[in-house]
Design a protein that fits this description.
Elements: H1 2-40, E1 47-50, E2 53-56, H2 57-71, H3 75-83, H4 86-98, E3 105-109, H5 115-128, E4 134-139, H6 142-153, H7 156-159, E5 163-167, E6 181-187, H8 196-206, E7 207-218, H9 224-246, H10 249-261, H11 265-274, E8 284-287, E9 292-298
Parallel strand pairs: 3-4, 3-6, 4-5, 6-7
Antiparallel strand pairs: 1-2, 7-9, 8-9
Helix pairs in contact: 2-10, 4-5, 9-10
This protein binds S-adenosylmethionine.
S-adenosylmethionine binds at residues 64, 68, 109-113, 115-116, 139-141, 144, 169-171, 187-189, 192-193.
Function: Methyltransferase required for the conversion of 2-polyprenyl-6-methoxy-1,4-benzoquinol (DDMQH2) to 2-polyprenyl-3-methyl-6-methoxy-1,4-benzoquinol (DMQH2).
Catalytic activity: a 2-methoxy-6-(all-trans-polyprenyl)benzene-1,4-diol + S-adenosyl-L-methionine = a 5-methoxy-2-methyl-3-(all-trans-polyprenyl)benzene-1,4-diol + S-adenosyl-L-homocysteine + H(+)
Subcellular location: Mitochondrion inner membrane
Length: 300
């Protein structure tokens, strides 16, 4: 009997002790960092949120830049782990909702490592046997863009010159002419921008008349039980996973906080409408109980 129980206790300790230590150090580090942020940016500048912290507007972009520079090499792996691969289903559904026709010209803003542009090309090739579709993958972060370039270098889409890469800010698409794209996409990118109104204004400008704005972003969960489970998972598990897999707890803490700060689906749909887009039905479709949502508007 004793012989059977003791090894079990040892295995239990082996697994749970590091976890408990991790949670304790996580809580301590988060508390310490929050205080550091508050002291560091005590200025008169207009403030915005960086996760749950309040920072001067002109500092947010640098902080967001640091987050994505830190996570770039582990970004795709962490997405798969954190979402149990579900982000792939959301992105597939996003592309099927877009249903691009042959020769479509796509601007994928905050395109990061290229999931949306890649899904777009695959769809055009599989459904229409089309190799004339074109996409520009634009991102503010050179490291994220580098990972995207590397991925595309292994595909035919680069050889056929269908893909182009641009370093740029969603809030000021200065290199993109007005009325030049059929579809504008931004997936899990807009909540990281400082001025969402400005991003929507630029999206409207660069789309051709008749063009479509599509955004895939985290949303608010209405079901109270799912919401509770989701919040527990987001705040207790994801930052710890970020520490274990990417050795970066702060970036993943920011990511979950930034999700909470993003407007609810109806408020964001109103912002899209205010930017001049025509929305159909209520303007969005909830995915997985509203954990994510697809927003869409037309430039008519
Ligand atoms: C969560 S990732 C999403 C990447 C990709 N769209 C996807 O769905 O996997 C967010 C991306 O937004 C980019 N980003 C943040 N602020 C930006 C801005 N102001 N302009 C352009 N890109 C921005 C980041 O560099 C990062 O690559």
């Amino acid at each position: 009997m004793v012989f059977q129980v003791r090894p079990k206790i040892r295995i239990f300790k082996l697994i749970y002790n590091p976890c408990i230590r991790n949670f304790a150090s996580t809580t301590y580090r988060l508390h310490r960092n929050e205080n550091l942020y508050e002291n560091k940016y005590d200025t008169q500048e207009p403030k915005t949120h960086f996760g749950f912290k309040s920072v001067p507007e002109n500092v947010k972009q640098t902080l967001v830049g640091q987050v994505f520079s830190n996570v770039a090499s582990k970004y795709d792996l962490m997405n798969d782990i954190m979402s149990f691969g579900i982000h792939r289903c959301w992105k597939d559904h996003f592309i099927r909702t877009m249903a691009p026709g042959p020769g479509t010209k796509l601007l994928d803003v905050a395109g990061g490592t290229g999931d949306i542009a890649m899904g777009f090309f695959n769809y055009c090739k599989e459904i229409h046997n089309d190799i004339t579709a074109k996409a520009t993958l634009l991102d503010i972060n050179p490291k994220m863009l580098e990972v995207g370039k590397e991925r595309f270098s292994m595909t035919s889409y680069e050889k056929t010159s269908q893909i182009a890469f641009e370093l740029g800010n969603a809030e000021n698409l200065e290199s993109i002419p007005s009325n030049s794209y059929d579809i504008y996409t931004i997936a899990f990118g807009i909540r990281n921008c400082t001025h969402i109104d400005q991003v929507l204004h630029e999206a409207y400008r660069v789309l051709k008349p008749g063009g479509r704005f599509m955004c895939l972003e985290f949303g608010k969960v209405q079901n109270p039980v799912v919401s509770l489970m989701y919040n527990l998972y987001s705040f207790q598990i994801i930052p710890v996973m970020g520490q274990l897999v990417a050795a970066d707890i702060n970036s993943y803490q920011y990511l979950v906080e930034s999700i909470q700060q993003f407007p609810s689906q109806d408020k964001f749909a109103k912002m899209i409408e205010n930017a001049g887009f025509t929305i159909v039905n209520n303007g969005w479709e909830d995915l997985s109980f509203g954990i994510a949502a697809i927003h869409s508007g037309f430039k008519l």
